[in-house]
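pasting C2 domain-containing protein for the record, 153 residues
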Amino acid sequence: MAVGLMEVHLVKAKGLENKDFLVKMDPYVLIQYKGQERKSSVARGNSSNPTWNERFTFKVEYPGSGSEYKLILKIMDKDTFSADDFVGKATIYVEELLAQGSENGTAELHPSKYSVVNAENNYYGEIEVGVTFTPKEEEESKEEYGGWKESSY
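structre below
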């Protein structure tokens, strides 16, 4: 089993559906992998074409428990006086990346565009994300079990 770090490079999005009426939306991304979740900053300004250029790290085991090797990106619209709006989501399957990284020592998906699907299951925009997996070197046990150095005599 390979244990390592998966780094997600959240670059930008394009053509997102504005959920706000009369005002620009303030999108952010919830990135989920198995039981872990990370949250991007809120992009302000060009709301339907936001840029984040942020990196997030997840601990990964391959093969690990379960068979779902999915990275889920939920794009949300930050609202001040009400619940945040769901804009859309994208799913990246990373099983091949983890297998390749386990075998070769590292693997990378260069930033690519993934389709964003809204609540009605229609394609509405795209998000650009890169993913890297690097297994950790397993440290040999450095435990010492007693001996003359540990003795008080």
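The chain has a mean pLDDT of 86.
The helical segments are 95-104.
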